[in-house]
Amino acid sequence: MNLAGLIPADVGVNAAIAICVIALVSGTARGFSGFGSALIFMPLASSMAAPQLVAAVLLIIDFIAALPLVPNAWKQADRKATSVMVLGALIGVPIGTYFLSRLDPVTTRWIISGFVFALLLLLLSGWRYRGRDHAAISVGIGGLSGFLSGLAQTGGPPIVGYWLGRPVASVIARANILLFFAASDFFSAVSYSLTGLITPDAIRFSLLVGPVYAIGVLIGAQLFGRASETLFRTICYALIAAAVVIGLPALDGVLR
User: Fold this and answer.
1) Confidence label for 3 from pLDDT (cuts 50, 70 and 90)
2) Which residues contact residue 198 at a Cβ distance below 8 angstroms, ignoring those fewer than 6 apart?
3) Are 114 and 54 in contact (CB under 8 A)?
4) Cβ-contact 92, 145 below 8 angstroms
5) Distance (Å, rounded) from C-alpha 176 to C-alpha 169?
6) pTM for the model
7) CA torsion, ordered 73, 76, 80, 83, to nearest 10 deg
Protein backbone atom coordinates (compact mmCIF):
# COMPACT_ATOMS: atom_id res chain seq x y z
CA MET A 1 0.00 0.00 0.00
CA ASN A 2 1.41 3.40 -0.99
CA LEU A 3 1.20 6.50 1.19
CA ALA A 4 -1.81 7.84 -0.71
CA GLY A 5 -3.67 4.66 0.21
CA LEU A 6 -3.30 5.54 3.90
CA ILE A 7 -5.23 8.80 3.50
CA PRO A 8 -9.02 8.57 3.98
CA ALA A 9 -11.08 9.35 0.91
CA ASP A 10 -12.69 12.41 2.53
CA VAL A 11 -9.33 13.92 3.55
CA GLY A 12 -7.42 15.79 0.87
CA VAL A 13 -3.71 15.30 0.33
CA ASN A 14 -2.96 18.86 1.46
CA ALA A 15 -5.04 18.35 4.61
CA ALA A 16 -3.20 15.07 5.32
CA ILE A 17 0.16 16.84 4.95
CA ALA A 18 -1.04 19.60 7.28
CA ILE A 19 -2.17 17.04 9.87
CA CYS A 20 1.25 15.35 9.69
CA VAL A 21 2.94 18.73 10.29
CA ILE A 22 0.62 19.33 13.25
CA ALA A 23 1.51 15.85 14.57
CA LEU A 24 5.22 16.67 14.28
CA VAL A 25 4.80 19.91 16.25
CA SER A 26 2.57 18.37 18.91
CA GLY A 27 4.87 15.35 19.23
CA THR A 28 7.84 17.67 19.75
CA ALA A 29 5.97 19.44 22.53
CA ARG A 30 5.13 16.09 24.13
CA GLY A 31 8.71 14.80 23.89
CA PHE A 32 10.19 17.88 25.51
CA SER A 33 7.70 18.97 28.13
CA GLY A 34 5.60 15.83 28.58
CA PHE A 35 2.31 17.56 27.86
CA GLY A 36 0.41 19.60 25.32
CA SER A 37 0.27 17.21 22.36
CA ALA A 38 -3.51 16.70 22.32
CA LEU A 39 -4.15 20.35 23.19
CA ILE A 40 -2.24 21.37 20.06
CA PHE A 41 -3.25 18.49 17.81
CA MET A 42 -7.02 18.34 18.34
CA PRO A 43 -8.12 21.95 17.65
CA LEU A 44 -5.93 22.17 14.53
CA ALA A 45 -6.34 18.67 13.12
CA SER A 46 -10.11 18.70 13.65
CA SER A 47 -10.28 21.79 11.45
CA MET A 48 -8.67 19.75 8.64
CA ALA A 49 -10.64 16.52 9.03
CA ALA A 50 -13.62 15.19 11.01
CA PRO A 51 -13.07 15.42 14.81
CA GLN A 52 -14.18 11.80 15.13
CA LEU A 53 -11.40 10.69 12.77
CA VAL A 54 -8.58 12.71 14.30
CA ALA A 55 -9.59 11.78 17.87
CA ALA A 56 -9.48 8.10 16.90
CA VAL A 57 -6.11 8.55 15.20
CA LEU A 58 -4.64 10.28 18.26
CA LEU A 59 -6.02 7.54 20.53
CA ILE A 60 -4.44 4.79 18.42
CA ILE A 61 -1.08 6.58 18.35
CA ASP A 62 -1.03 7.32 22.09
CA PHE A 63 -2.31 3.87 23.07
CA ILE A 64 0.47 2.12 21.15
CA ALA A 65 3.13 4.56 22.37
CA ALA A 66 2.13 4.10 26.02
CA LEU A 67 2.08 0.29 26.08
CA PRO A 68 5.84 -0.19 26.74
CA LEU A 69 5.59 2.14 29.77
CA VAL A 70 2.82 0.20 31.52
CA PRO A 71 4.81 -2.66 33.18
CA ASN A 72 7.19 -0.30 34.97
CA ALA A 73 4.36 2.05 35.93
CA TRP A 74 2.44 -0.90 37.38
CA LYS A 75 5.38 -1.67 39.68
CA GLN A 76 5.92 1.92 40.86
CA ALA A 77 2.38 3.30 41.06
CA ASP A 78 0.12 3.60 44.05
CA ARG A 79 -2.35 1.20 42.48
CA LYS A 80 -5.02 1.59 45.16
CA ALA A 81 -5.18 5.39 44.79
CA THR A 82 -5.04 5.17 41.00
CA SER A 83 -7.81 2.58 40.85
CA VAL A 84 -10.20 4.97 42.62
CA MET A 85 -9.54 7.59 39.94
CA VAL A 86 -9.89 4.99 37.20
CA LEU A 87 -13.47 4.36 38.40
CA GLY A 88 -14.25 7.95 37.42
CA ALA A 89 -12.73 7.42 33.99
CA LEU A 90 -14.87 4.32 33.53
CA ILE A 91 -17.90 6.61 33.83
CA GLY A 92 -16.53 9.67 32.03
CA VAL A 93 -15.02 8.07 28.93
CA PRO A 94 -18.29 6.59 27.54
CA ILE A 95 -20.10 9.90 28.12
CA GLY A 96 -17.43 11.85 26.25
CA THR A 97 -17.42 9.24 23.48
CA TYR A 98 -21.20 9.47 23.18
CA PHE A 99 -21.03 13.22 22.59
CA LEU A 100 -18.17 12.82 20.10
CA SER A 101 -20.13 10.24 18.11
CA ARG A 102 -23.46 12.11 18.19
CA LEU A 103 -22.64 15.79 17.74
CA ASP A 104 -22.10 17.33 14.33
CA PRO A 105 -18.45 18.17 13.51
CA VAL A 106 -18.79 21.97 13.82
CA THR A 107 -20.43 21.75 17.26
CA THR A 108 -17.77 19.26 18.35
CA ARG A 109 -15.03 21.64 17.21
CA TRP A 110 -16.54 24.51 19.20
CA ILE A 111 -16.67 22.30 22.30
CA ILE A 112 -13.09 21.12 21.76
CA SER A 113 -11.86 24.70 21.36
CA GLY A 114 -13.70 25.77 24.51
CA PHE A 115 -12.38 22.92 26.62
CA VAL A 116 -8.83 23.28 25.32
CA PHE A 117 -8.91 27.00 26.14
CA ALA A 118 -10.15 26.20 29.65
CA LEU A 119 -7.43 23.58 30.08
CA LEU A 120 -4.83 26.08 28.87
CA LEU A 121 -5.98 28.49 31.59
CA LEU A 122 -5.67 25.63 34.08
CA LEU A 123 -2.08 24.99 32.98
CA LEU A 124 -1.20 28.69 33.08
CA SER A 125 -2.64 29.02 36.58
CA GLY A 126 -0.20 26.41 37.88
CA TRP A 127 -3.07 24.79 39.76
CA ARG A 128 -2.23 21.89 42.03
CA TYR A 129 -4.69 20.14 44.31
CA ARG A 130 -3.20 20.24 47.80
CA GLY A 131 -6.24 19.34 49.88
CA ARG A 132 -6.96 16.09 51.63
CA ASP A 133 -7.52 12.84 49.81
CA HIS A 134 -11.19 12.08 49.28
CA ALA A 135 -12.54 9.25 47.18
CA ALA A 136 -15.26 11.51 45.78
CA ILE A 137 -12.68 14.07 44.60
CA SER A 138 -10.52 11.37 43.02
CA VAL A 139 -13.51 9.86 41.22
CA GLY A 140 -14.65 13.32 40.11
CA ILE A 141 -11.26 14.28 38.66
CA GLY A 142 -10.96 10.88 37.03
CA GLY A 143 -14.45 11.30 35.57
CA LEU A 144 -13.65 14.77 34.20
CA SER A 145 -10.42 13.53 32.65
CA GLY A 146 -12.23 10.50 31.22
CA PHE A 147 -14.95 12.70 29.71
CA LEU A 148 -12.34 14.96 28.07
CA SER A 149 -10.45 11.90 26.82
CA GLY A 150 -13.59 10.37 25.36
CA LEU A 151 -14.60 13.63 23.71
CA ALA A 152 -11.24 14.79 22.38
CA GLN A 153 -8.32 12.88 23.96
CA THR A 154 -7.52 15.97 26.07
CA GLY A 155 -7.81 14.54 29.57
CA GLY A 156 -4.26 15.24 30.72
CA PRO A 157 -4.32 18.57 32.63
CA PRO A 158 -6.79 17.65 35.43
CA ILE A 159 -4.90 14.43 36.23
CA VAL A 160 -1.45 16.00 36.02
CA GLY A 161 -2.56 18.97 38.14
CA TYR A 162 -3.93 16.62 40.78
CA TRP A 163 -1.08 14.17 41.08
CA LEU A 164 1.74 16.70 40.92
CA GLY A 165 0.17 18.49 43.87
CA ARG A 166 -0.01 15.41 46.06
CA PRO A 167 2.64 14.80 48.75
CA VAL A 168 4.10 11.75 46.99
CA ALA A 169 7.43 11.09 45.33
CA SER A 170 7.65 12.32 41.75
CA VAL A 171 8.39 8.77 40.57
CA ILE A 172 5.13 7.54 42.08
CA ALA A 173 3.17 10.52 40.76
CA ARG A 174 4.49 9.91 37.25
CA ALA A 175 3.68 6.19 37.49
CA ASN A 176 0.15 6.98 38.71
CA ILE A 177 -0.39 9.30 35.75
CA LEU A 178 0.92 6.73 33.26
CA LEU A 179 -1.14 3.93 34.76
CA PHE A 180 -4.30 6.04 34.82
CA PHE A 181 -3.95 6.96 31.16
CA ALA A 182 -3.22 3.37 30.19
CA ALA A 183 -6.58 2.44 31.72
CA SER A 184 -8.30 5.52 30.27
CA ASP A 185 -6.94 4.77 26.79
CA PHE A 186 -8.15 1.19 27.09
CA PHE A 187 -11.65 2.39 28.03
CA SER A 188 -11.52 4.85 25.12
CA ALA A 189 -10.42 2.10 22.71
CA VAL A 190 -13.34 -0.10 23.77
CA SER A 191 -15.79 2.80 23.73
CA TYR A 192 -14.60 4.10 20.35
CA SER A 193 -14.81 0.59 18.90
CA LEU A 194 -18.35 0.04 20.14
CA THR A 195 -19.52 3.37 18.69
CA GLY A 196 -17.79 2.78 15.37
CA LEU A 197 -15.19 5.55 15.74
CA ILE A 198 -12.19 3.25 15.24
CA THR A 199 -12.60 2.60 11.55
CA PRO A 200 -10.29 1.11 8.92
CA ASP A 201 -9.70 4.69 7.73
CA ALA A 202 -8.58 5.75 11.22
CA ILE A 203 -6.25 2.75 11.54
CA ARG A 204 -4.68 3.32 8.12
CA PHE A 205 -4.33 7.05 8.68
CA SER A 206 -2.61 6.43 12.03
CA LEU A 207 0.04 4.43 10.14
CA LEU A 208 0.87 7.66 8.29
CA VAL A 209 0.50 10.16 11.13
CA GLY A 210 1.95 7.96 13.90
CA PRO A 211 5.56 7.76 12.65
CA VAL A 212 5.62 11.54 12.10
CA TYR A 213 4.33 12.05 15.64
CA ALA A 214 7.02 9.65 16.94
CA ILE A 215 9.72 11.64 15.13
CA GLY A 216 8.42 14.77 16.86
CA VAL A 217 8.60 13.04 20.25
CA LEU A 218 12.22 12.03 19.57
CA ILE A 219 13.10 15.58 18.51
CA GLY A 220 11.51 16.95 21.66
CA ALA A 221 13.36 14.44 23.83
CA GLN A 222 16.65 15.46 22.20
CA LEU A 223 15.88 19.13 22.87
CA PHE A 224 15.25 18.41 26.54
CA GLY A 225 18.20 19.75 28.52
CA ARG A 226 19.50 21.82 25.62
CA ALA A 227 16.98 24.63 25.95
CA SER A 228 15.39 26.45 28.84
CA GLU A 229 12.39 24.46 30.05
CA THR A 230 10.67 27.70 31.03
CA LEU A 231 11.11 29.08 27.52
CA PHE A 232 9.93 25.87 25.89
CA ARG A 233 6.87 25.62 28.13
CA THR A 234 6.06 29.22 27.21
CA ILE A 235 6.32 28.24 23.55
CA CYS A 236 4.03 25.25 24.18
CA TYR A 237 1.45 27.48 25.85
CA ALA A 238 1.65 29.88 22.91
CA LEU A 239 1.20 26.99 20.46
CA ILE A 240 -1.86 25.75 22.36
CA ALA A 241 -3.36 29.26 22.33
CA ALA A 242 -2.63 29.58 18.62
CA ALA A 243 -4.18 26.15 17.99
CA VAL A 244 -7.39 27.24 19.75
CA VAL A 245 -7.65 30.45 17.71
CA ILE A 246 -6.68 28.94 14.35
CA GLY A 247 -8.98 25.96 14.89
CA LEU A 248 -12.08 28.07 15.59
CA PRO A 249 -14.89 27.19 13.16
CA ALA A 250 -15.70 30.91 12.89
CA LEU A 251 -12.44 31.40 10.99
CA ASP A 252 -13.04 28.65 8.42
CA GLY A 253 -13.97 31.13 5.73
CA VAL A 254 -10.74 33.07 6.29
CA LEU A 255 -8.15 30.39 7.02
CA ARG A 256 -9.56 27.38 5.20
Assistant:
1) confident
2) 56, 59, 60, 189, 192
3) no
4) yes
5) 11
6) 0.85
7) -10
